[in-house]
Specification:
Length: 239
């Protein structure tokens, strides 16, 4: 009697081991990447460049999810996680398409009529400009006195108040270069802003979209970071 009982348990254990299927690791990774892909859509509201920098996340999520889905289907007796892989694939695809699409839409519509888009990167002289003795690129100098549109961040401490601000220092980014010691901030990474319209901004870490008349004061190059070379008489401000 005892032998028969042992044999029954042995057969039961064998059946369970045969039917056991492991959750495919790739399905889990793909799902997590799908969730993280939301940053593609979030960053699209700031700049198209920021959105594109995040796109490797959903692209990798799509690749991992497709690969794990193929593995699960070909070895269905060993792996499970089909719907998790499908969910990861759907999330990555959705956020990739919607993020890039929204980022492109913002890029195409954020510049008001009559303004020309510039960037802090464009204010930086190239090696060719420097060899020619041009601290300010000629194409930028040609915009002096004209309406331009530029995006950036308020440098902390550059405004006398925290709310209702109409005068501050606009800088290229809010972390990498421009929130530390002012003496280390390059002249092409900052711009003095004076709002001449009724618009006002708040001292936050949000990106600012500014438009106005560009002024260039190359004589300030020899005076240091405390004397901005570029300034903007702004009549347009969106935060």
């Amino acid at each position: 009697m005892s032998t028969t009982t042992i044999d029954q348990y042995s057969e039961s254990d064998t059946d369970e081991s045969i039917h056991y299927r492991a959750l495919h690791t790739g399905a889990i990774v793909g799902f997590v990447l799908g969730l993280l892909s939301v940053f593609t859509l979030v960053s699209a509201s700031t700049t198209l460049e920021a959105c594109l920098l995040v796109t490797p996340i959903p692209i990798l999520g799509i690749f991992v999810s497709l690969r794990s889905l193929a593995k699960i289907r070909s070895e269905s007796d060993q792996y499970t996680g089909k719907w998790l892989a499908i969910a990861g694939l759907a999330l990555s695809t959705f956020f990739l398409v919607s993020g890039v699409g929204y980022g492109y839409y913002v890029y195409r519509t954020e510049v008001p009529d009559g303004y020309e888009r510039i960037s802090f990167e464009g204010l930086r002289p190239t090696e060719q400009d420097e060899r020619a003795g041009h601290a300010v690129p000629p194409e930028v100098r040609a915009l002096a006195g004209k309406r331009v549109f530029i995006k950036g961040y308020i440098r902390p401490g550059s405004a006398p108040v925290r709310t209702g601000i109409d005068q501050f220092l606009l800088v290229r980014d809010n972390n990498q270069c421009c929130f530390g010691d002012l003496s280390k901030v390059n002249y092409f990474d900052q711009m003095a802003v004076q709002i001449t319209s009724s618009h006002r901004v708040e001292d936050t870490l949000q990106i600012l979209r500014m438009g106005g008349i560009l002024e260039i004061n190359e004589q300030n190059l020899a005076l240091g970071p405390g004397y901005p070379v570029f300034s903007l008489k702004a009549d347009y401000a969106v935060q």
